[in-house]
Amino acid sequence: MGQIGFPATWITNYQSTHLTFERVEEFKYLGTTLTNQNSIAEEIKIRLRSGSACYHSVQNLLSSRSLSKNLKIKIYRTIILPVVLYGCENWPLTLREEKKLRVFENMVLRRYLGLGGTR
Question: Highest mean pLDDT range out of 15-24, 57-66, 110-119?
Fold first, then answer.
């Protein structure tokens, strides 16, 4: 489906009767960085870094042999995954970005479920 209206590069500012809206390259909305190119690559990198930091903060818990695999999966789904996917409803994912998210998930699951290092 094609775009309706003028290309974004033609519009510098928008002014209504009471407000003026400045055209910007990017802005934060509900914790997600949105760009004028509709690119989410930088946001994915930030989320994956945050998810990795979250994983490392609970790594001792997840590497415990006293926890069942089902409990470890529940911990992953309730603590790590929401950090990575926060605001994902607004993400226009490409196949490359979707693959990055899958690689992260597989890496985390392999590590704490003890399934080995590589595929």
Answer: 57-66
User: Strand 26-29 and strand 20-22: pairing?
Assistant: unpaired
Q: What single string gives the DSSP state of each residue in 3-34?
A: --SS-GGG-SEEE-SS-EEE--SEEEETTEEE
Residue type, 12: T
Contact criterion met (CB below 8 Å) for 21 and 13? yes
In angstroms, rounded to a whole number, what is the distance separating the alpha carbons of residues 15 and 1?
Answer: 27
List of residues 6+ apart from 77 with CB closer than 8 A: none
Residue spans per domain, the chain? 8-113
Q: Running DSSP on this structure, what letter comes out for residue 26?
A: E
Q: Which of 72, 73, 75 is nearest to 64 (CA)?
A: 72
**Would you say 69 and 113 are in contact if contact means Cβ atoms under 8 Å apart?**
yes
On the 0-12 / 13-18 / 19+ scale of CB atoms within 10 A, 43 is buried
> 4-8, 23-27, 99-103 — which is least confidently predicted?
4-8
